[in-house]
C-alpha cells in the first residue's frame, strides 16, 4: 500500500486537464501532493462558474445592473461555494464510511475542490457571454422575441453544453469520491446522491410545511 501511494505521489499530472478523463489520477495527485489552500482556491474559483450557471435565464438584469450582478458573483458565490464544500465534504465522509470508505475529511475536502474544476473552465465563457450579450443570458429566450431567433439558438446551445457538463460532472464526482474513499465509482455515485436526495427531501418537507401553515392560517383567519 505504501509503494502504491508513493507511486501516485510521484506521478505528476495537471489537475485542470486530467480531471476530465483521468479523474482518479488527478484526484489522487491533489490529495497527496496539494495543500488544503490549493483546494480552497479551486473551490473559490469554481464557485463563480457554478453560481453564474444558476443565474442563467433568471431575468435578474431587469432590475439589477449587469456590473453589480458580476461583482456580486465574484464576491458572493465563492464564499457560498466554500461554505457548501466544507459541509459537503463532511457528508461524503459520513456516507462513504457506510460503504467502508477509508478517506479522511481532508481527503474529501480536497476531492471536492478537484471535482469542481469543470466549473472553473466554464466561468470565463459565462462571464464573456454576460458582458457581450447580457439580455440573451439572463432573459427567458422563449418569452422574448429576438430577430433571427438568436436568443433561442443561444439558449439551446447553452442548454446542450450545460447538460453535458452536468452529466460529466456527476461522473467526475463519482470517480473522485471513489478514489478518495478507495472504493468503486458506483459506491462513489451513491455517496454523492444519497446526501442530495436527503437534502432535497428536507427542502421539500420545509416547503410543504410552509404551504400547509399558510393555508391553515388563511382558512382559520378568513
From TrEMBL:
Segments passing through the bilayer: 35-55, 67-95, 107-131, 151-171, 192-220
Entry-linked InterPro entries: Yip1_dom
Keywords: Membrane, Transmembrane, Transmembrane helix
Localization per record: Membrane
Domain Yip1: 19-205
Keyword Membrane included in the entry's annotation: yes
Main localization of the protein described in the UniProt heading: membrane
Keyword Chloroplast found: no
Source domain of life: Bacteria
Topology of the protein relative to the lipid bilayer: Multi-pass membrane protein
Name of the protein this chain belongs to: YIP1 family protein
Species: Planococcus chinensis
Organism lineage string: Bacteria, Bacillati, Bacillota, Bacilli, Bacillales
Amino acid at each position: 500500500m505504501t509503494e502504491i501511494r508513493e507511486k501516485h505521489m510521484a506521478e505528476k499530472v495537471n489537475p485542470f486537464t486530467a480531471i476530465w478523463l483521468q479523474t482518479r489520477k488527478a484526484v489522487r495527485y491533489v490529495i497527496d501532493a496539494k495543500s488544503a489552500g490549493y483546494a480552497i482556491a479551486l473551490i473559490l474559483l469554481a464557485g463563480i462558474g457554478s453560481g453564474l450557471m444558476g443565474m442563467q435565464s433568471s431575468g435578474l438584469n431587469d432590475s439589477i445592473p449587469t456590473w453589480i450582478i458580476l461583482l456580486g458573483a465574484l464576491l458572493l458565490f465563492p464564499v457560498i461555494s466554500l461554505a457548501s464544500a466544507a459541509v459537503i465534504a463532511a457528508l461524503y465522509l459520513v456516507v462513504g464510511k457506510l460503504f467502508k470508505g477509508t478517506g479522511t475529511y481532508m481527503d474529501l475536502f480536497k476531492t471536492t475542490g478537484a471535482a469542481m474544476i469543470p466549473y472553473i473552465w466554464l466561468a470565463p465563457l459565462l462571464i464573456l457571454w454576460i458582458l457581450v450579450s447580457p439580455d440573451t443570458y439572463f432573459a427567458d429566450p422563449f418569452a422574448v422575441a429576438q430577430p433571427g431567433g438568436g436568443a433561442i439558438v443561444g439558449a439551446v446551445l447553452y442548454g446542450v453544453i450545460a447538460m453535458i457538463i452536468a452529466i460529466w460532472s456527476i461522473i467526475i464526482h463519482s470517480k473522485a469520491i471513489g478514489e478518495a474513499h478507495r472504493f468503486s465509482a458506483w459506491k462513489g455515485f451513491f455517496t454523492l446522491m444519497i446526501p442530495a436526495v436527503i437534502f432535497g427531501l428536507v427542502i421539500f418537507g420545509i416547503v410543504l410545511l410552509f404551504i400547509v401553515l399558510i393555508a391553515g392560517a388563511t382558512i382559520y383567519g378568513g
